[in-house]
Amino acid sequence: MSVVRGGRRVLDSVDLALAPGRTLAVIGESGAGKSTLIGAILGLLRPQSGRVAWNGEDLRATNPSLVMQEPRAAFNPALSLRRSVMEPVKARRLRLPEGRLDRLCTGLELDPDLLDRRPHEVSIGQAQRLGILRALITKAPLVLFDEPLSALDAVTQKHTANLIAALQSEEGFAALVVTHDLGYAAAHADEVVILRDGRIEEAASAETFFRAPQTDYGCALCEAALALGALERAA
Fold first, then answer.
1. I need a labelling partner for 156 at 20 to 30 A (CA). Which of 106, 179, 187, 203 fits?
2. Could you tell me the CATH number of the domain that includes residue 185?
3. How far apart are CA 223 and CA 127, in angstroms?
């Protein structure tokens, strides 16, 4: 898949594959093309070549869900969080299975009473978990996470990442995580794609990549992450 914006090729021959229940981390610095990739997957941008498909069908028919980077900005400040969380259900005219909302609240360690508040009345960590709740409420088979932990402190990041992993194991959705956080990828991804200047620089299983990256750029990213203490495991 290739995408041109403003006369510039922002994504160039990017080919991704993701199986149900698996996590693919797309890692790249600012300007690598990560946001454009999400836009193309969601159908907000039209590729100049290639296609976006899931199980052989147009991905838009799958209605993938998105967890945004800025937790509070993801919600309409004029609406209660309950109305915002339930918007995807209403928009798709779905019938919510009995008890699903409560089960997801339990899995995300959220007090259901928080749903009756407005976005400014909850913490950043609670707002991000409510964003995850909204993404999972329709039981979408593919969930996109756009820098899902970057607004959180280190302790909350780790806890939230573990909650996501537990729910993924239970629900079986595929997760595409766009991030610059190699620590998250090392701990939770099955596959890793390194995006650089709109092209795939390296693609491998997470285990292979963090044990022995095959490109100079991949090595440099791992070395920088190790120096900053961002990697919990490097092999």
1. 203
2. 3.40.50.300
3. 33
